[in-house]
């Protein structure tokens, strides 16, 4: 029975490690995040999202998920006198990546000898174009008007509906990057 649960836990870890999104963050070294107790939202920045995220459902997914994460971190929504102002930006752009061919070496007729038989990657064989989606969330100190924290989730997007439906998970993982719980 323990083996079954251990296998399931291992499988979940493996699947989670294969997330199609990558997460990054940066924060101001001079900001004491324990002093921030309240927040509000600024309007989203002009989006370069090719209609993927330019809709009310995407906006709702971002705001509701981020609000829940901020409340779990101990922050309180206060539109009249916030300590932090949050905003988001959604971008979808065309980009490309290098495609590699596998190396298969070894002994054979006319192949020669390869001491690293079956290992490694072959040379680059071309470029593959794809669409990359980025959700960026920033926290701005309301008194200084300076960005004190920024986090981003980036990944390949193929389908606008799936991209919008994936937003709650992407935003949750972005908000996990927020530095510290507020002191009450």
Task: Please supply descriptive tags for the structure shown above.
single chain, alpha/beta, Double Stranded RNA Binding Domain, six-stranded mixed beta sheet, 34% strand
CATH level 1 class label of the domain at 23-95 and 131-175: Alpha Beta
The arrangement of helices and strands along the chain is HEEHEEEEH
Please compute the radius of gyration using only Cα atoms.
Answer: 22 Å
Annotated CATH topology of the domain at 23-95 and 131-175: Double Stranded RNA Binding Domain
The N- to C-terminal Cα distance equals 43 Å
Q: How many strands?
A: 6
Helix proportion range: 25-40%
Structural overview:
The protein is of the alpha/beta class and 184 residues long. It has a domain at 23-95 and 131-175: Double Stranded RNA Binding Domain, CATH 3.30.160. Helix content is 27%, strand content 34%. The chain contains 3 helices and 6 strands; from the N terminus they run H-E-E-H-E-E-E-E-H. The protein has a 6-stranded mixed beta sheet. Helix 2 (56-72) packs parallel to helix 3. It is elongated. Residues 27-179 form the DUF4136 domain. InterPro entries: DUF4136. This is DUF4136 domain-containing protein.
Topology at a glance:
Layout: H1 2-17, E1 21-27, E2 38-41, H2 56-72, E3 76-77, E4 84-102, E5 121-141, E6 147-156, H3 160-175
Parallel strand pairs: 2-3, 2-4
Antiparallel strand pairs: 1-6, 4-5, 5-6
What's this entry about, in short?
By secondary structure, the protein is of the alpha/beta class.
